[in-house]
Amino acid sequence: MSATSPASLTIHELRTRLASRAVSPQEVVDDLLARMERLNPRLNVYAAIDPDRLRQQAKAASPIRGRLAGVPITVKDNICIDGELTTCASKILAGFRAPYDATVIHRLRREGAILIPRANMDEFAFGSSTENSTYGPTRNPWDLDCVPGGSSGGSAAAVAADVAIAALGSDTGGSIRQPAAFCGIVGLKPTYGRVSRYGLVAFASSLDQIGPLTKDVTDCAWLLSVIAGQDPNDSTSAPVDVPDYVAGLQQPVKGIRIGLPELSVEGIDPEVHRAIQDAITVFQRLGCSTVPVTLPNIGSAVATYYIIATAEASSNLARYDGVRYGRRVSGDNGQGTLLDMYERTRDQGFGAEAQRRILLGTYVLSHGYYDAYYLKGMKVRTLIKRDFDDALARCDVVLLPTAPSPAFRLGEKIDDPLQMYLSDVFTISANLAGVPALSVPCGFSSQGRPIGLQLLAAPFREEVLLRVGYAYEQATEWHRQQPE
Amino acid sequence: MTTISPDVVTQVARLARLRLDDHAAAHVTQQLNDILAYVRQLQAVPTDGVEPTSHVLPLSNVLRPDESKPSLPQTSVIALAPATHPPFLAVPKVLEAG
């Protein structure tokens, strides 16, 4: 592939070339389509591709009007686009066409973006490997035997393999950051309330956020500037001004205090540990200082998360009952009762992991177990949030690995849900505490699999994350590496 | 809190409107017990006097003026349903024959 193939460009590079008419929106879309045709059969990053629809959008696109004029943005299959299929990679939403645009989609359109539905994902975002999809697993562009991470694995792999310019995903416990790390790209989970959730199919409403998956930090800032902001349609979106994140990137990082939590190295892959240590040296060379911090309750994060997230999920997924939308399965030639229809629809519509989470969530909320599990989980969540409040009072950003290991092999964890859950050990606490967190490429394992570092900041301090991430990116070459 | 039995799982499945056959119930019971055994580590975390967090933002009672606004047209919403009897949704009979 030539280095100037439009599909390989970042948003900011593409904007420059579109504005100067060096390339047209049609050429960009045609190049992406050609790559999709070649690579999607192997990678399975898109659940469906509609070339005509994309070409129509490209033809209608202005190359100049808007911050994303003529720029294609790939969208995860759980974000509603008016008139398009939105299925959350679930059989139960087979054939569902969204009747309205999510707020983030409205904002992308307003800035002139071309929308590319539908990036593959774990069903209802339940998973860390994109293996729980009715469309089959997505593969990691760096190693086809490995998972791309999840649940936004389709979005991450598409960006890494240049079958996307940039993508939107959603992050409930690491679903943007962990696949970004596994695929060697940049991913941001914004502060809870920074980006409207209107039109995002709900998984766990107190944890879910939409965010960007991009080729570099500049694109991440670019896309966040477009999608962030309060929205009357989401009462949990916060009344906080949106700064120009791109303009803030070049601010100096000298004197930034980087908090280093004491972590038990046990359970962290030695190559990941080494990459993080090397990154610390880079930050010190950039003039940042390091501060030891403690997160005493981080070890409880996975357990807390799998109570709270499954409780909220079981409640949110009660709406899929074969009545208002999606798929219905009736028994006895349609002569069965309503209850029979509910059970058949949900049994055949939900995959194994979705059923497991609904069961677990229903159990922890049920009479007699509520105090021991759900209430306890909410109290420990308070402690985890306090840990971050305390740590971030003493430093500007906290540095953690994004994932405890590089990408694992397909099938390796699929039959062991607990092991799969533990792959989110470093990402989950940001969702529980509501703080923003950015994953940036920071190296490769000896087998050539990408490694990511994670920066966390106080609520609504995304500009600090992006500034520090940008400085690190400028000082290193990891983000320039390309899969074969 | 000890382990949960397949009977409890079957009961929870019924509450969640899922249909688990005996084989599936046995398999998922094992997995749920593994997860619950892990989750029970929280019992060792002292939380006396700690308020629960259901939501991280310091927001409460978000209000807007009480004015009606247009909503999605009924026809386009009804059209999403797997079975309809316009302008209604159609469902199987609710009561058992008896």
Can you characterise this structure?
The complex is a heterodimer of chains A (484) and B (98). Chain A contains 15 helices and ten strands. Chain A is an alpha/beta fold and 484 residues long. Chain A folds into two domains: 6-256 and 395-480, Amidase signature (AS) enzymes (Alpha-Beta Complex), CATH 3.90.1300; 299-377, no CATH class. In chain A, strands 2-1-3-5-4-9-10-8-6-7 form a ten-stranded mixed beta sheet, sandwiched between helices. In chain A, strand 6 (257-261), helix 8 (270-285) and strand 7 form a beta-alpha-beta unit. The mean pLDDT of chain B is 90. By secondary structure, chain B is mainly α. In chain B, helix 1 (6-15) crosses helix 2. Chain B has a domain at 6-44: Histone, subunit A. Chain B has helices spanning 6-15, 22-39, 74-78, and strands at residues 84-85, 88-89. Chain B has a two-stranded antiparallel ribbon with strand order 1-2. The chains are: A alpha/beta (484), B mainly alpha (98). At the A-B interface, helix 9, helix 10, helix 11, helix 12 and helix 13 of A face helix 1 and helix 2 of B.
Give a brief rundown of this model.
The complex is a heterodimer of chains A (484) and B (98). Chain A contains 15 helices and ten strands. Chain A has a ten-stranded mixed β-sheet with strand order 2-1-3-5-4-9-10-8-6-7, with helices on both faces.
